[in-house]
Specification:
Shape of chain B: globular
Number of helices of chain B: 15
Strand content of chain A: under 5%
CATH topology of chain A: ABC transporter involved in vitamin B12 uptake, BtuC
Structural class of chain B: mainly alpha
Strand content of chain B: under 5%
Number of helices of chain A: 16
Structural class of chain A: mainly alpha
Distance between the termini of chain B: 16 Å
Oligomer: heterodimer
Number of strands of chain A: 4
Helix content of chain B: over 70%
Radius of gyration of chain B: 21 Å
Number of domains of chain A: 1
Chain lengths: 362, 352
C-alpha cells in the first residue's frame, strides 16, 4: 500500500477509512496509548450527544418553561422507551457490521399477536404474554440470524426481505381486524401506565434493558467480541472469535428486544392493527446513528443509542410544546441525523490523525 | 490491477457462452417471469388482457423510473434511500406551483431542478465528506419528506391542466401502451447505453468493485458519485411528476415508503448490494416480475401486504440462489479456490 500511496499526490479519503487505524488497534493489548485515545473518542461521542441534548433542552426551556416540568420530561421518556429498547437491540446488530431492517415488522407482528392472544383468552397472565412476545421476537430474530450466518445473505437484503415477510404475516393473522383497548384486560394496559416506586414501568423496562446491554457490551467477553467482529471481521475470525455464532446471537437478542417492545407497544397504544410500527425501522436506525453508533460496525454504545433516541423524542416533544408547525418535524429530524453523522465524521477524522501522530512518535 | 481491469471489461465486451448464459441470474428471471405469466393466465382470465397489462404496467412506472437511477447508484457501491421522498417533494412542488398559477412547463422544470438539487446534496455529503450513503440518505429521506410537507402543508392539490392529466391517463393513440410507460422505456434505453455502453458505465462498475483502485486508475470517483446521486434525484423527481399526473393528485405523502420497494426491485434484479455487479436488464426483468406477481395476486384478491410475503421471500431466495448459482458456475468453470468477496467473480468467465 505504502509505495503506491506515495506516487499519488493527494491521498484519497477512502485510504484512511480502508486502513481503519482506529479500529485495528483495539486488538493490540500493548497499544495502550491508542486504547486510551479510543476511550476518549467513545466518551467524546456520548458527551457530544449529551451536551447537544442539554443545550437543546435549555433553549426550549427558556422559550417555554413548561417544557422542563417533571410531567413533560416524564412524557418524553415514556415516548422514547419503546424506541430505546429496539435501538439497543439494533445497536448489537449494527456493532457487528450488520443491520436489521425488520425491527418495525417484528414489533408490529408481536404487538398484534400478543394483543390478539389477550383478546381471545383474557385470563392469560401478563407475565406469560410478555414471555410470549419475547420468545416470538427471538424466533423471528433466529430467522434473520440464520439467513445472515448460514444463508450468507447480506444482512440488509435478508432483513429487507423479512421486513416484508413479517409484515405480510402480520396482515395474514390480523386479516383486517384490530384489537382495541376495550378488548384487552386492564392488567395488560397497566404495563404502560402503572408505576413502581413512582417511576413508570415502561421507563423501568427501558432502563433495565439499556443497563444490562451496556454492562454486557463493556464487561462481557462476547460483548467485546461484537466490537471485534464489526471492527475487522477477518481479524476477529483469525483471532478465534466465534463470529457466526455471535452475529446469530446479536440478531436473536435484537429480535427478543423487538418482541419486548412489541408487547409494550400494544399496551401503550392500546389499539393495534396490522399496520402497527410500520416504518419504525427507519426511526430506530436514525436513533442509533444519531447516538454515535458507526453504521459500519465496531464502535458505539447502548447508552449512545439511547441518548440518540431521547434526542429524537425530545425534538418531537419540543415542536409540539412550542406549537411549531408539525410539518417541520420530519425535516428537522432529517437535518439532525445528517448533522450528527457529519460532526461524528469530523471528530473521527481528527482522532485518526491524532492517532497516526501518536503512532509515528513511537 | 491489469487482471481486475480485464475482468471488468469482460462483463461488457465479451459475450458469455451459451452454457454460462444458463447460469446467469437474468435467465432465471426470464424463466420466473414466463412461469408467472403462464400460471397467471391459467388461473385467471383477467390477467392476459391488453387492458389489464396496460394498467399493470402503468402502475409500475414510478418505481421503475426510480429503479433506473438507483441501479447506477447501487452498482457504484452506494445507496439512495431518499428517492421516494424526492418523489413526494417533486409532487408537492408541482402541486404548489400549479396551484399558485404557474404554467405547467416551469412547474415541472422547478420540480426536476429540486430533484437534481436533492441529489446534489446527497452526492456532496457522500463524495466530499465521505459519509456513508446509507445514513446520509436515511437522513434526507426524512428531510426531503419534511420539506414536501413544508411546501404543501397537509393540502392536496387535484386541479391540473388537462394536458398534464391526459399525459398521466392516456395511451399512445391506437395502442394500449400508456404514455408514461413510453417515458420509462426511453429513459431505460438511455440508462442502458450509459451503463453498458459508455465510459461512465465502466467507471461506475470500477468504483463499485474497488473505489480506491478506481481512483488510483484515474477514475474521477467523487465526480461520478455526485453525478449518480444527481441523476437519481432527477429521475425520482420525474417519477414524482408522472405520479402526480397519473393520480391527478399532489400530496406531500405521495409514494410514502416506496423506497424499500425500489431497493427490492434492484436487488432482485441481481445487483449486488456491495456494488460492482449487476445489469440493467436484470433490474427491468425484476420490475416486470414483481409487477406480474403483484398483478396476478391482486386479481386473486390477495391484499397488497400479503403479496409482500412473496416479494420478500423472492428477494431472499434470489440471493441464496445467486450464491448457489455462483458456486455451480465456478464448479462448471473448474476454477481454483473461490475468489474473495471483492473480486468480480461473476465476470470474466474463465480463461478469456
Amino acid at each position: 500500500m505504502r509505495p503506491l500511496a506515495r506516487t499519488v499526490p493527494v491521498p484519497p479519503p477512502e485510504a484512511a477509512q480502508a486502513v481503519e487505524p482506529v479500529e485495528e488497534v483495539r486488538f493490540g493489548g500493548r497499544r495502550l496509548r491508542a486504547r486510551a485515545l479510543l476511550d476518549v473518542a467513545g466518551r467524546v461521542r456520548e458527551a457530544g450527544i449529551a451536551v447537544a441534548l442539554a443545550l437543546f433542552v435549555l433553549v426550549v426551556a427558556v422559550i417555554e418553561p413548561r417544557f422542563i416540568e417533571p410531567n413533560n420530561l416524564e412524557e418524553i421518556l415514556l415516548s422514547v422507551s419503546i424506541l430505546a429498547i429496539v435501538a439497543v437491540g439494533q445497536t448489537l446488530v449494527v456493532l457487528t457490521r450488520n443491520i436489521d431492517l425488520s425491527v418495525g415488522s417484528t414489533v408490529g407482528l408481536v404487538a398484534f399477536v400478543c394483543a390478539d392472544t389477550l383478546k381471545g383468552s383474557p385470563g392469560t397472565s401478563v407475565v406469560l404474554v410478555v414471555l410470549l412476545g419475547v420468545v416470538l421476537g427471538a424466533g423471528l430474530g433466529v430467522v434473520n440470524g440464520l439467513l445472515v450466518t448460514v444463508g450468507r445473505v447480506p444482512a440488509i437484503v435478508a432483513t429487507l426481505g423479512t421486513l416484508y415477510i413479517f409484515r405480510g404475516l402480520d396482515f395474514t393473522i390480523a386479516g383486517g381486524k384490530e384489537v382495541s383497548a376495550s378488548d384487552v384486560p386492564d392488567a395488560y394496559l397497566d404495563l404502560a401506565t402503572s408505576r413502581v416506586l413512582g417511576i413508570p414501568v415502561l421507563i423501568l423496562f427501558a432502563a433495565v434493558v439499556v443497563l444490562i446491554a451496556s454492562l454486557a457490551l463493556r464487561r462481557m467477553r462476547s460483548g467485546r467480541e461484537l466490537y471485534a467482529i464489526g471492527s475487522n471481521p477477518e481479524a476477529a475470525r483469525l483471532a478465534g472469535v466465534p463470529s457466526g455464532r455471535l452475529v446469530f446471537l446479536a440478531f436473536v437478542v435484537c429480535g427478543a428486544l423487538c418482541g419486548l417492545a412489541g408487547v409494550l407497544w400494544g399496551a401503550r397504544f392500546a389499539t393495534v392493527d396490522a399496520r402497527a410500527a410500520t416504518g419504525f425501522e427507519l426511526t430506530v436506525v436514525a436513533a442509533v446513528v444519531v447516538g454515535g453508533v458507526n453504521i459500519f460496525g465496531g464502535s458505539g454504545t447502548a447508552i449512545g443509542a439511547t441518548l440518540g433516541a431521547i434526542l429524537l423524542g425530545t425534538i418531537e416533544n419540543a415542536l409540539s410544546i412550542l406549537k411549531l408547525n408539525p410539518f417541520w418535524l420530519q425535516a428537522i429530524q432529517g437535518a439532525v441525523i445528517i448533522a450528527a453523522v457529519t460532526l461524528d465524521a469530523i471528530v473521527t477524522r481528527r482522532l485518526q490523525r491524532a492517532l497516526r501522530r501518536a503512532r509515528a512518535r513511537r | 490491477m491489469t487482471m481486475r481491469w480485464s475482468a471488468l471489461r469482460g462483463k461488457h465486451v465479451a459475450r458469455p457462452r451459451a452454457r454460462e448464459l444458463l447460469f446467469q441470474w437474468e435467465a432465471l428471471l426470464v424463466l420466473m417471469l414466463v412461469a408467472t405469466i403462464l400460471i397467471g393466465s391459467s388461473i385467471t382470465e383477467a390477467f392476459l388482457t391488453g387492458q389489464n397489462l396496460s394498467l399493470a404496467s402503468a402502475d409500475l412506472v414510478e418505481k421503475a423510473i426510480m429503479a433506473l437511477g438507483l441501479t447506477l447508484v447501487i452498482i457504484a457501491g452506494e445507496i439512495d434511500l431518499s428517492v421516494a421522498s424526492v418523489l413526494g417533494l417533486s409532487s408537492a412542488i408541482v402541486g404548489a406551483t400549479i396551484d399558485a398559477g404557474v404554467p405547467l412547463g416551469p412547474a415541472i422544470a422547478l420540480a426536476l431542478l429540486a430533484g437534481a438539487l436533492c441529489g446534489l446534496f446527497n452526492g456532496l455529503l457522500v463524495a466530499k465528506l465521505g459519509l456513508p450513503s446509507l445514513v446520509v440518505t436515511l437522513g434526507t429521506l426524512a428531510l426531503f419528506r419534511g420539506l414536501a410537507f413544508v411546501v404543501l402543508g397537509d393540502r392536496a392539490v387535484s386541479e391540473f391542466p388537462l394536458a398534464f392529466t391526459d399525459f398521466g391517463f392516456a395511451n399512445v393513440p391506437g395502442t394500449l401502451i400508456p404514455w408514461t410507460v413510453v417515458v420509462f422505456a426511453a429513459l431505460a434505453v438511455v440508462t442502458f447505453v450509459v451503463l453498458h455502453g459508455s465510459w461512465i458505465g465502466r467507471d461506475v462498475y470500477a468504483i463499485g468493485n474497488n473505489a480506491q483502485a478506481a481512483r488510483f486508475s484515474g477514475v474521477e470517483v467523487d465526480r461520478i458519485k455526485i453525478g449518480l446521486f444527481v441523476a437519481s434525484g432527477t429521475l425520482a423527481a420525474l417519477a414524482g411528476v408522472v405520479f402526480t399526473a397519473r393520480f391527478a393528485s399532489a400530496r406531500p405523502d405521495n409514494a410514502l415508503g416506496f423506497e424499500l420497494d425500489v431497493v427490492t426491485a434492484v436487488l432482485l434484479g441481481g445487483v449486488s448490494i456491495f456494488g460492482g455487479r449487476g445489469s440493467l436488464v436484470g433490474v427491468v426483468l425484476a420490475l416486470f416480475l414483481i409487477g406480474a406477481l403483484r398483478n396476478v395476486l391482486s386479481l386473486e384478491d390477495v391484499a397488497a401486504e400479503k403479496q409482500s410475503i412473496v416479494i420478500g421471500a423472492l428477494l431472499i431466495v434470489s440471493v441464496v440462489g445467486t450464491n448457489a448459482l455462483r458456486g455451480l458456475q465456478e464448479r462448471a468453470a473448474r476454477r481454483r479456490p473461490a475468489p474473495s468477496r471483492t473480486e468480480p467473480s461473476m465476470e470474466g468467465g474463465g480463461g478469456r
